[in-house]
Amino acid sequence: MKLARGGCLPIRDRRKQQIAGLGYSAMSQRYAISSLDEARQYLAHPVLGPRLRECAGIILTIKGLTAEQIFGSIDGMKLRSCMTLFHRGAPEETVFAQVLDRYYGGVGDDATDARLGR
């Protein structure tokens, strides 16, 4: 498993965990998650999993702004991809679905779903 120090959200370390194949930069390719199993391993990590959940929870405290207004258009797309990936990997963890609901009308990222075979 490739471990990014920062978690997936732009408020942490500028690295957003995404499914492999979405990002083209060296950094996004290096830290891309290759499968739902790897996403679950990330969530089970004693530092990275709690950090990701904490960041998602913090995002939910922001009221009256869109993801694009908070993060910009590119990072707003990466947030959607990230939340889709972890929601698909751990649907029982409601925080990821809550972010998708709040900022994206409950609709996940189509490109992430396609790479997951959904």
Topology record:
Elements: H1 26-30, H2 36-44, H3 48-60, H4 67-71, H5 73-89, H6 94-104, H7 110-115
Work out the count of structural domains. Answer: 1
Principal-axis shape equals globular
Mean pLDDT: 83
Determine the structural class based on helices, strands and strand pairing.
mainly alpha
Q: How far apart are the termini?
A: 22 Å
pLDDT under 50 segments (min length 5)?
1-7, 9-14
Helix content: 55-70%
The portion of residues forming beta strands comes to under 5%
Tell me how many strands there are. Answer: 0
CATH class: Mainly Alpha
CATH architecture, by name, is Alpha Horseshoe
How many strands, what sense, and barrel or not for the largest sheet? Answer: none
User: What order do the SSEs take from the amino end to the carboxyl end, as H and E?
Assistant: HHHHHHH
CATH superfamily: Protein of unknown function DUF1810
What count of helical segments does DSSP give?
7
Q: Oligomeric status of the shown chains?
A: single chain
